[in-house]
Amino acid sequence: MMDHCWVQSLPFDAKIATPFAYFGCMQCQTRQLTHAGESVHLFKCHGRLAPARFLFDETHCPACLGEYHTRAKVLAHLRVAHQCRQQLIGQRMRCQPQPGAGSSNDRELEERLDRAQPFLQAFGPRVNNPRQIEFEAHDESLLEDIYLAMLDAEEESDLELIIRREISKHPVSWTICKHTLHHFLEFFSQQDAEVLKFSFEDVRSCVIKLENPDAWSFLHAECTRDGRQLSTDISVWEDWFACMACSPPCEWQQLQPLPRSLSRQRIILHAYAGRRRRGDIEWYIDEVAKCHPEVVIHVASVDIVIDAGFGDITKEATRSYWVGHIRQGHVVGFLAGPPCNTWSRARHHVLTGTHGPRIVRTPDAPWGRESLRLRELQQVSIGTLLLGFAFQCIVALALHSGTGFVEHPKDPEESHMVSIWRLPVLRAILQLPNIRLLHLAQGLFGAPSAKPTTLLVLGMPGLEMEFHSNRVTRELPKGASVGKDHLGQFHTAPLKEYPPSMCRALAFALCSEVICTECDGSNVPAELIDRCTAMTNQLFGQFIGHDDG
Questions:
Q1: In CA terms, which of 125, 203, 370, 446 is 20 to 30 Å from 27?
Q2: Where are the domains of the chain?
Q3: Tell me: domain 264-474+488-534, CATH 1.10.760, correct?
Q4: What is the pLDDT of residues 396-433, one digit of tens each?
């Protein structure tokens, strides 16, 4: 059984498309799924530091003199840089461990550099022909304690129970335990058995049995993370959603959403808002709000450039905060256009004289291809997480009488191209009442190209009529949006912003439902109002932002 593996995707409330690891803790007797592997669990639960933490105490690698700016990155470097790690072990390097990943000290270093400072190579004296040694794969203390426990055993003692008890006293992973038992078998001799109450053959057969993962029932139990059962196989979740889409529970047809808040304060979340400009959705929402003084509409721009804490969707606490207020009925509207760069059909176009972004998702691997560069893996991870948050908010609003939409490019329909509209999770969401798909072309509203678009719409019954009345042309434009301009900017970048007439239609349809309910004097928490007011973006920008694929 392998302790470590890669999984392509997990449910949207987890960290998606990032490296996870199976981890069997022999002391806790649990099989878990951890984001950073066994070292985090061993430190948090048992106070055991990763051995590589003793090889450095600054933000540079003492072997190759690479400056990584944070200690967490040095540790990550030493985990994969075998030559550096083996050289430091060979030099008998022993440093006092310093605060590492997750510490306030390391976070301060990371924030000071804004995660933008690249790796730097320093110069200085180095060891010539260094002696290279690797960490021991086994646990020496566990090895010794197993033998001493057998040495102290009584005549009629259960040998297997003795070894199991000794193993359970040590905070080690299944991998280290297995290596330790294997090391024991390699060096255990007839002479070692002469002083024991057990025969040489009995000891060997018992250790061979315990070396097999089948001897440990918890290694085959349901995988857990943070105390919850969790499957690591994406196909399990895909099949589950596909079944829900084909055969939704009959209770869904009688679903009665919980009532929304009837406070005078109406909160709308605008996720991934981008820059403000005249004629954007928020601009039109403000215009509509002026005509309805009986309500106060707050549009919170949930974007990391607006608020580094409550706008950072990659943080689980941030996602829980906003979804929690939706579930309490405090948030009544949601609008989002999750980044489509990793899903874009433009990746299939070959650019003359240059290399465009590679295809990173396929219909068979919509959550990311198995082999990706680190930068591509980061793009896929973030893109999936942001899409998942949008789906989560729409579902939560569907259960609490909310309204809103999620926008994404229309399904290209070619079988070799990927699309979010074919995902089983999306088909399952469509089974909820009051949710539908709406297709349109942004070119009819003033976009420079046709830009076929699909909206996942919750409520907003007047949206189709608003779109019809806000068209600026009956003919689709002939322009193309593939390639780069004279400044090296991808032509797809301006298409991230909706044309003004499309924004007007969306804003009017959204506001007509947000303001349709009367006020009853109830109150939204003052803390939430203050937070949303602080995240109302009033800074109109001139720069769109690059579309790097």
A1: 203
A2: 21-121+131-136+220-229, 140-213, 264-474+488-534
A3: no
A4: 999 888 999 999 999 888 888 889 999 989 998 998 88
